[in-house]
From TrEMBL:
It comes from the Bacteria. It comes from Streptomyces thinghirensis. This is NDP-hexose 2,3-dehydratase family protein. Residues 42-243, 258-461 form the dTDP-4-dehydro-6-deoxy-alpha-D-glucopyranose 2,3-dehydratase domain. Gene3D superfamilies: EvaA sugar 2,3-dehydratase subunit. InterPro entries: EvaA-like, EvaA-like_sf. Residues 1-23 are annotated as: Disordered.
């Protein structure tokens, strides 16, 4: 015979608010504050140059045969690391049901592990400051740029490379070290990565935070000022800052949130895109030499190899492949004030490497040189409008580097360009829709809604206070 012991009823639990409006207000206050408590903006260039001088950086192109630990697989031609970690360069075959190019082959980076892009926040003098790092990336044209507190793949922070510890990683991997202000999986470049995601995090630290060399505290307003400069704030910083919980000051929108989401869901549903990984050595139109893998028409991008020396990194020297785009990209939102409320024109964009086929991108996201040979009727919508924009209509412009850990000299000219009804009507072509910055800020709290280029422009729009 068995008996059970009666358990007392569970005690009442204290319910918490589902959101804290004060966080958005604190983020907005930081964005409005351009005087830092720890480093003045006018002193930042000297600080960055000091960090550059403190370490030895060098990147040299090498033939594939000099890659240490990397090799081309005999069966597939895929470029792989002997550890089985980091990433591989493989082939991709894409077919789509819309657009002037409905089938293509290309090399692609497959990096299935999820990395951490994390920015640590802390209040000084009542204003949120963000801990930023002067980090060297081999693909950056100027090598050293402002990166998040932590910018590390799983292979990095689990020390597959047997290097030094990633500083501050514990704030993002150990619960209780801080208060999470933002935490979301976001995609990377869908044109060059195959279904790659990173965890974008902002964590407010609890207690004192040691300040290591190569790190500095800046307000969001200071970072916004730096976003006006070319090649200073790196891509990883921009994507994390886009996830910051800004307040929504928009009073109404051309399309209600539910209508915008319904349109986007329909866009995802209507596209038939198939992306299949194939062997790298079986890509029609691509050729491999001792130094490069490139397209036979010398367009798009090439795969190259480099040897890196970096005194400030967890490993002082290594070799690796990089993707090198051919030509400067142009990435832009067309903007309008509709009923007095700022709007941007988003594009439901198909990219072969996306996990969900379609993400919301900028109005224009192209490398013009890749379309020089295309007939006028097949040129991307709005591209020529942006290229020929009157300077008086340009509300924001800067050249920013793309991900410097995998791409060599990959730069895009980012713009916000004011348009009128004749240039960009309220009823735009299929695949385009007007949305407010507040609506995008709401969507970016969820993964795989906004692509990395749209997130860059959203970060620039929110942090710089550009008026559209």
């Amino acid at each position: 015979m068995s008996s059970t012991v009666a358990r007392p009823p569970a005690g009442p639990r204290t319910l918490r608010p589902r959101s804290d409006a004060s966080v958005a207000a604190r983020v907005a206050r930081s964005a409005a504050e351009t005087t830092g408590a720890r480093l003045r903006t006018e002193d930042f260039p000297q600080w960055l140059e000091g960090r550059r001088a403190a370490h030895r950086f060098q990147v040299d192109r090498i033939p594939f045969g000099e890659l240490a630990g990397w090799s081309f697989e005999a069966a597939t031609g895929n470029l792989v690391h002997r550890s089985g970690r980091f990433f591989t360069v493989e082939g991709l075959h894409v077919t789509a049901d819309t657009g002037p190019f409905r089938e293509w082959y290309q090399p692609i980076i497959k990096q299935p592990e999820v990395g951490i892009l994390g920015i640590l926040a802390k209040e000084f003098d009542g204003v949120l400051h963000f801990l930023m790092q002067a980090k060297m990336e081999p693909g950056n044209r100027n090598l050293l740029q402002l990166s998040p507190t932590v910018q590390a793949t799983r292979s990095n922070y689990t020390k597959v490379h047997r290097g030094a510890d990633v500083k501050y990683i514990e704030y993002f991997t150990r619960p209780g070290r801080g208060r999470v202000l933002a935490d979301v999986l976001q995609s990377e470049h869908g044109s060059w990565f195959f279904r790659k995601s990173n965890r974008n995090m902002i964590v407010e630290a609890v207690g004192e935070v040691p300040l290591h060399d190569d790190f500095c505290w800046l307000t969001l307003g200071q970072i916004g000022e730096l976003l006006h400069l070319d090649n200073v704030v790196n891509m990883d910083s921009r994507t994390v800052l886009a996830c910051a919980p800004f307040p929504d000051a928009d009073h109404g929108a051309l399309h209600a949130d539910t209508d915008l989401l319904s349109w986007f869901t329909a866009e995802r549903s209507r596209h038939d895109v198939r992306a299949e990984r194939v062997p790298l050595d079986r890509l029609p139109g691509w050729q491999r030499s001792e130094w490069t893998i490139d397209h036979e028409e010398d367009r798009y991008f090439r795969v190259v190899a480099v040897a890196v020396q970096a005194g400030s990194r967890e490993v002082a020297g290594w070799t690796q492949p990089l993707f090198e785009p051919l030509g400067l990209g142009v990435t832009a939102f067309l903007t309008r004030r509709i009923g007095g409320v700022p709007h941007v024109l988003v594009h439901a964009r198909v990219e072969g490497g996306f996990l969900d086929t379609v993400e919301l991108g900028p109005t224009v996201q192209y490398t013009p040189d890749n379309y020089a040979h295309v007939a006028a009727e097949d040129r991307p919508p709005f591209l020529d409008l942006v290229l020929d924009a009157d300077p008086s209509r340009v509300r924001y412009e800067a050249v920013h580097s793309e991900e410097g850990g995998r791409f060599l000299n990959a730069e895009s000219r980012y713009l916000l360009v004011d348009a009128d009804e004749d240039q960009a009507p309220l009823d735009p072509p299929p695949g385009y829709r007007w949305a407010t910055p507040g609506q995008l800020t709401s969507l970016v709290r969820h993964g795989h809604y906004l692509n990395v280029q749209a997130r860059t422009l959203l970060a620039c729009l929110n942090a710089t206070g550009v008026r559209i």
